[in-house]
Amino acid sequence: FNTVVYAQKTADISTISEKTLSSILEKNRTYYTQGKVADYIPELGKMDAKAIAFSVVKKNGKVFNVGDVQKKFTIQSISKIIALMIAVSEKGEANVFDKMGYFGTDQPFNHFSNLETTGKPLNPMMNAGAILTTSLISGDGEKSFLKILELLRYITKNQTLDYNSSVYESEKSTGHRNRGMFYLMKNNGLISGNEDQLDNYFKQCSVEVTAEDLAKIGYFFANECVRFDGDAKYKNAEMSRLIQSQMLIAGMYEFSGEYARTVGLPSKSGVGGGITVSVPGKMGIGVFSPALDQHGNSAAGYHMILDLVKQYDLSLF
Ligand code: DON
Q1: Phi/psi at 291 (nearest 5 deg)?
Q2: How far apart are CA 51 and CA 152, in angstroms?
């Protein structure tokens, strides 16, 4: 049990600067030695374990970046919150959650539960629920993936975002467990389409981003789906509540409970080494360091977030 000691005197968040972020980054830089770069998808294993970046987007849209800010990595599971937003806007939340649960879990992200018992995935953050979520987005072929890409480009205001085809091919050729879940859900009557829908899931996981892009995603959900520059095209308080609640209960997989106790903020991790964090009504945080802990979350990333939260009393609790 990891007891966390919070700062006695909280610093004002208006004082967050590149200097503050830089000292937190340097303090946690070596945490990568306690983790391991994901190699179950061979292309991911090529990541530089020492790369590290930390980004914050504050209320006025101001961006603070430190570390390897130009470094791109694949978004992986963080794409699940974007797919969920699209599926819920198209189908309505009642229809989406008729097909899957709103439960937390003590199982890893690629666990089959509860496909063999209730027949439905536990939540849209674990792979099974995420594959199902993407299949619920309308459009043939790669159209549903393109909707995810388009929304990601909007939120980050980064039109250059695209998927990495080698990572995609690597996921597709080794993702037999995901394929197994896809067919079990098809067998259970939850999925009606063909394998293009699974390919769309692999493609959404393979989109390359930077820590800054992740901070902007965190900001968007923290601020009722209003973009960092104030654009309110997708403003929707219910949607941001739904997405942030999923992030809080399941965004860090089986570590979500301890994460809620220690960090206390809606967050979503990916096996590419990124974590996006929403500080409701205040700001977005994006971190990157590819070595993962035993739960599949970035080891140094977690510690950088924890230090920022401790220093500025950012926990919701
Ligand atoms: O489904 C997979 O195996 C990956 N493409 C995504 C999983 C992921 O990022 C889980 N995260 N911690």
Answers
A1: -75, 125
A2: 23
Establish whether 253 is an annotated binding residue. yes
77 CB near ligand 1 (under 6 Å): yes
**Which atom of ligand 1 is least distant from the CA of 272?**
9
- Please choose, from the candidates 8, 106, 40, 77, the residue with its C-alpha nearest in 3D space to the C-alpha of residue 217: 77
- To the nearest whole number, what is the mean pLDDT of the chain? 97
Q: Note the ipTM here.
A: 0.95
Whether pTM > 0.95 for this model: the answer is yes
The residue type of 247 is M
- For the chain, domains (ranges, CATH) are 13-312 (3.40.710.10)
The finding on whether 164 has its CB within 6 A of some atom of ligand 1 is no
List, as one string, the DSSP characters of 241-306: HHHHHHHHHHTTGGGHHHHHHHT-S-EEE-TTSEEEEEETTTEEEEEE--EE-TTSSBHHHHHHHH
Which residue type sits at 206?
S
Strand residues in the chain grouped as ranges (E):
36-37, 53-57, 63-67, 73-74, 208-209, 267-269, 274-279, 283-288, 291-292
